[in-house]
């Protein structure tokens, strides 16, 4: 059984919740949330991989883990960020 990952990290005073999950068995989806508001999302289609003879649950789990790790690295590098959550509690995605 393939399971997802949930991690919270603090970067520049903002707590980011990163959630990576398998979706319908053929996609990997990672959501980045700040105070419950979605600030970034990545969806990786894997339909061809899932149909291939090389597919295993272990390999799928490793792809999930790698995408999750890469998103955390991108937050720490400042590539994915959010402005400070406003007084009303809603986060605003950063526009470069």
What does this structure look like?
It is a single chain. This protein is α+β, with helices and mostly antiparallel strands and 96 residues long. The protein has one domain (5-76): Beta-lactamase Inhibitory Protein, Chain:B, domain 1. Helices cover 26% and strands 35% of the residues. It is built from two helices and four strands; from the N terminus they run ββββαα. A four-stranded antiparallel sheet has the order 1-2-3-4, covered by helices on one side. The mean pLDDT is 85.
Question: CATH class, anyone?
Answer: Alpha Beta
Which CATH architecture? Answer: 2-Layer Sandwich
Beta content comes to 35-45%
How many structural domains?
A: 1
Q: Which fold does the CATH topology refer to?
A: Beta-lactamase Inhibitory Protein, Chain:B, domain 1
User: How would you spell out the order of helices and strands?
Assistant: EEEEHH
Tell me which oligomeric state these chains represent: single chain
Low-confidence stretches: none
How many strand units?
4
Structural class comes to: alpha+beta
Q: Percent of residues in helical segments?
A: 25-40%
Distance between the termini: 39 Å
Mean pLDDT: 85
The largest sheet, given as strand count, sense and whether it forms a barrel, is: 4 strands, antiparallel
Strand order of the biggest β-sheet: 1-2-3-4
**Broad shape:** elongated
Number of helices: 2
* CA-based gyration radius: 15 Å
List the topology elements.
Blueprint: E1 5-11, E2 14-23, E3 27-34, E4 37-45, H1 47-51, H2 57-76
Antiparallel strand pairs: 1-2, 2-3, 3-4
Q: Which features characterize this protein?
A:
single chain, about 100 residues, alpha+beta, Beta-lactamase Inhibitory Protein, Chain:B, domain 1, four-stranded antiparallel sheet, about 25% helix
């Amino acid at each position: 059984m393939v399971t997802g990952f949930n991690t919270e990290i603090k970067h520049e005073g903002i707590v980011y919740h990163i959630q990576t999950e398998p979706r319908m068995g053929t996609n990997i989806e990672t959501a980045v949330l700040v105070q419950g508001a979605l600030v970034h999302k990545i969806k990786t289609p894997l339909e061809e991989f899932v149909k291939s003879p090389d597919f295993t649950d272990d390999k799928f789990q490793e792809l999930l883990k790698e995408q999750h790790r890469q998103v955390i690295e991108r937050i720490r590098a400042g590539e994915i960020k959010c402005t400070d959550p406003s007084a009303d509690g809603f986060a605003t995605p950063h526009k470069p």
